[in-house]
Design brief:
The chain is about 30% helix and about 10% strand. The chain has 6 helices and 5 strands; from the N terminus they run H-H-H-E-H-E-H-E-H-E-E. Strands 1-2-3-4-5 form a 5-stranded mixed β-sheet, covered by helices on one side. Helix 1 runs parallel beside helix 6.
Length: about 190
């Protein structure tokens, strides 16, 4: 598969902007940025929230790096998103004590509520930690109106870094639906 821009993070950045927050997107894995350089940049930015987009294949490495980042910025609220958290949110939070919140399911409305200051205990679709105890809140239904969500914050990503592999030209990524109508036994999202 060709390297694709992080449209999921662009969507969350647009949610943050709509809520009055400033957002920055970095694709450190694509850049090959050293862990020390990542830590320096996170300390300079000093974010209130850091959202990591992870996969089941990369969760251990990604959250290990995020754990070290949180050690340098202890007030940082560390969130992670990805299909991995649909079936494994509790186990992942237990394995990575620095992770504060796992977003389960479609993240935009969840993230908007977190940015809006809602109590974590009331936000459907998250697993979270308080005083060492992991709580998994009830599931959240998918957004009823996808047209109500903001367009992705595409301006935060240099799209030249994601060329088509067959000809090197720029590519545009448009997601025209959400979810999947299938229930494949091997897919984490179907569980």
């Amino acid at each position: 598969a060709p390297p694709l821009p992080p449209t999921d993070l662009m969507c969350l950045a647009a949610v943050a902007k709509r809520a009055g927050w400033e957002a920055t997107i970095r694709d450190y894995a694509r850049d090959g940025t050293s862990e020390a350089a990542v830590a320096r940049e996170v300390q300079e930015i000093a974010p209130d929230f850091l959202v990591a987009s992870v996969t089941s294949q990369t969760v251990a490495r990604d959250l290990a790096i995020c754990t070290r980042l949180k050690a340098t910025c202890p007030r940082l609220v560390l969130l992670a998103k990805g299909a991995h958290f649909i079936p494994f949110s509790r186990e992942t939070l237990e394995a990575f004590p620095a992770l504060d919140i796992a977003l389960r399911g479609e993240p935009e409305e969840i993230f908007a509520e977190l940015l809006g200051g809602h109590s974590w205990s009331e936000v459907r679709g998250i697993a979270w930690r308080k005083d060492g105890t992991v709580t998994v809140n009830p599931d959240r239904p998918p957004p009823a109106d996808l047209d109500a969500l903001p367009f992705p914050a595409r301006h935060l990503v240099d799209h030249r870094r994601y060329p088509r592999p067959d000809n090197g030209h720029l590519q545009g990524i448009i997601k025209v639906s959400r979810g999947c109508p299938h229930d494949c036994f091997f897919c984490l999202a179907s569980r």
